[in-house]
Design brief:
Elements (H helix, E strand, L loop, with lengths): L4 E3 L2 E2 H6 L5 E3 L10 H15 L15 E10 L5 E5 L1 H17 L6 H14 E3 L5 E4 L1 E3 L7 H10 L9 H19 L3 H12 E8 L2 H11 L8 H14 L3 H21 L7 H16 L10 H10 L5 H18 L8 H10 L6 H12 L5 H21 L3 H10 L1 H6 L12 H10 L7 H11 L14 E5 L3 H7 L14 E5 H7 L4 H9 L11 H9 L5 H21 L5
Parallel strand pairs: 3-5, 3-8, 4-9
Antiparallel strand pairs: 1-9, 2-9, 4-5, 6-7, 10-11
Length: 573
Amino acid sequence: MAKQLNAEQKTISQVFMECKKAFLIPEYQRPYSWERDECRTLWDNLYEFAFPNDTISDFDADEDNYFMGTILFFKNRSKEYELIDGQQRIVTFLLMFRAFYQAFGSAQDESIKNIRRKIEQCIWKVDEDGNKENLKVNYEVIADEESAELKKILTTGKPTDKNKSNYAVNYRLFKRWIEDLNAEKPNYLLYFARRILNNCVLLPIETDSQNTALRIFTTLNDRGRPLDDADIFKAQFYKFYLNRGSDEKDKFVERWKDLAELCNKNFHPRKDTPVDDLFRRYMHYLLAKNEVKNDTFPDMRDYYEKDSYKVLQSDETFCELEILAQFWDDVTTRNEERFSPRVLKRLYVLSWAPYNIWTYVVSIYFMGNRDLDEEKFYNFLNKITAMILMYAITNPGVQAVRRPFFVEFQNILRGRPLEFSHFKQDVRILRERLNNANFSNWRAITGSMLAWWTFQNPAQDLPPLGVELQIEHILARKRQELHHVLENPDALEFLGNKSLLEKNINIRAADYRLVDKKIFYFGDGKSKRGTFNLELRELAETHDDFKEKDILARNEEIFDAFINYLRVQDLLI
């Protein structure tokens, strides 16, 4: 079995000097972000460690150690040590070492010369004749426009005049602090550098692969956000376009920025980042396209990593990601040039779905049928709405609801009618599950069913863009708490007592009787608009109160309509 990781505590000088290849800070890492406060804290902590009680003599060079944390890396295909965690500290120490190296440049004392040679071997690879070769760090972060300044500082010891990058600012700080210390306590400087190099320790953890390193980082790290999948995918595209020339690379950077903006605007996943969510939707299209037979979906990073990220080494792939992102932007903005009103209503109902499988399924359908025949697309949306809602009641759980859609991947991709022949439900069991279902407000199925019911009325318009809807108790909870108007208190949480209502109206109307809610449902004809919900307006016109018999009657009406909807979609036996 291959080794998974190798970890052994080492001094900072050992970490750098024993590094035969450069530490690679790869394209997907985030830019160097340490500023004055972080550098000042590091400097002060190191000084307090090196000079206990502000004296040279109280330090025990054989026993005293200062643990500076872990660095996590793996040896990539180029045999470089690709850093997953520790980038900020590695860069900061190199800037500090370069400042020490500069300060010790003209000294003739043999002890200082020895320390300078040691620092030299931390910054550069030095050949057997003592000649400096390559730097010990290779910095390739694509989002960092100032990375050339780091190389210039480490190579020459001279930042660009007036450069205000973190590299230049921090390097100047270290130079000034070294000069100040040398002016105040000249005999301290040699000891300070020596004790940092020889007594400050790191725990370098070398793993056998990038994925192993990333997983360990996610487990251990409590200081910052772990790398997103999109960070790594972006780097693969960047390398692909860089190989096609600087113009292509520059165009890609702008295209990626536009893509990320679309994702941030339209995707709001619970776990992934918005860009990750786009890649996940696209992955499901690729799974369908490649006729994957296993219904256990792979980890997304593992999927894209196959064959050295081959699928990401393609302009066609990036173009398709842009097309898919634009499609979802048109969904979110309700592009009426692209979608009919009834299709927009179906998409809106699906946006309330209890599982995000619908976004993957719709992505597959669109990528396989980009012209989007309106009638076929509308029928498709109805079918998947019915299936998702039915399974959320009869077979709740993400894994359960994914299975019938996986079986239909090829029909979805090719725009053929969906069958779900092995997943139809017995109508008697469905009715029983509906009667026994918990429709508390916190359950996603409650909002989903209410959204579906609201738009069963063909005359119902969509709420304005940006309007937040909440679940309204038509018979207010406060009335039941105060007056006990229900013989069966459980009826308060029946679906028949709930509806979707704009948040601002729901706040104002929450505790009133129906007769008192009318002004909120209809608005005042001036500054306060009434509700978009036609059913609530109709109730306000025809009822002065909403009683237990009304809850039960409406509950049955919703259930009967839902069963009939599933029957029309050929999902019942």
